[in-house]
């Protein structure tokens, strides 16, 4: 397995393969990751294609073999944008941000994004509001007064 082939497995796909290796089931991996079983299936299928294997089971086995061989999988490499930095960047926009936007931008689950957003709201760094037209919950950066 070359590094080049692994470079095309996204961090989310790597986390799904890790969870599948730990739990052994799609439902178990979905519960651990806080996503739907269908999301797990889709990420694992795409990872299988990118790893050059025929199915999800072979993708998990190949991924696990890479981890055991000491090769750092893409999902564990440094360089990922910290979640709080992503939140601050998105919440600073005039329209604010939603937890779904944060999750996609930071490549985390929506529950992870919600958890961190809740911490920042409680700390007073981000405020929670409601979108005027569609009623969705949005988050805005709180301006620090000098």
Describe this protein's structure.
The protein has 8 helices and 2 strands, in the order ααααααααββ. The protein has 146 residues and is mainly α. It has 2 domains: 74 residues, Orthogonal Bundle (Arc Repressor Mutant, subunit A); 59 residues, Arc Repressor Mutant, subunit A (Orthogonal Bundle). It has a two-stranded antiparallel sheet. Helix 3 crosses helix 4, helix 6 packs across helix 7 and helix 7 crosses helix 8. It starts with a helix and ends in a 5-residue tail after the last strand.
What descriptive keywords fit this protein?
disordered N terminus; elongated; mainly alpha; two-stranded antiparallel ribbon; 7% strand; 2 strands; 2 domains; Arc Repressor Mutant, subunit A; 146 residues
Summarize the structure.
This protein is mainly alpha-helical and 146 residues long. Helix 2 packs across helix 4 and helix 3 packs across helix 4. The protein contains eight helices and two strands.
Number of helices: 8
CATH topology of the largest domain: Arc Repressor Mutant, subunit A
Q: What share of residues are in beta strands?
A: 5-15%
Query: What is the tally of beta strands?
Result: 2
Which CATH architecture of the largest domain is right?
A: Orthogonal Bundle
Distance between the termini: 54 Å
What profile does the largest beta sheet have? 2 strands, antiparallel
Order of helical and strand elements: HHHHHHHHEE
Shape: elongated
Low-confidence stretches: 1-7, 75-80
Give the CATH level 1 class of the largest domain: Mainly Alpha
* CATH homologous superfamily designation of the largest domain: Winged helix-like DNA-binding domain superfamily/Winged helix DNA-binding domain
Report mean pLDDT, rounded to a whole number. Answer: 79
* Cα Rg: 18 Å
Strands ordered across the widest β-sheet:
1-2
Structural class: mainly alpha
Range of helix content: 55-70%
Q: What is the oligomer described by this structure? A: single chain
Compute the number of structural domains: 2
């Amino acid at each position: 397995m070359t590094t080049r082939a692994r470079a095309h497995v996204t961090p989310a796909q790597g986390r799904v393969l890790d969870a599948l290796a730990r739990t052994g089931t799609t439902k178990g991996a979905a519960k651990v990751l806080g996503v739907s079983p269908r999301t797990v299936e889709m990420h694992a299928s795409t990872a299988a294609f990118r790893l050059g294997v025929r199915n999800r089971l072979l993708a998990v086995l190949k991924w696990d073999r890479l981890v055991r061989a000491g090769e750092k999988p893409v999902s564990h490499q440094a360089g990922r944008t910290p979640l709080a930095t992503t939140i601050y960047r998105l919440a600073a926009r005039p329209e604010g941000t939603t937890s779904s936007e944060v999750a996609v931008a930071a490549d985390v689950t929506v529950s992870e994004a919600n958890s961190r957003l809740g911490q920042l709201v409680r700390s007073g760094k981000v405020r929670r509001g409601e979108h005027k037209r569609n009623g969705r919950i949005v988050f805005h950066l709180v301006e620090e007064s000098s």
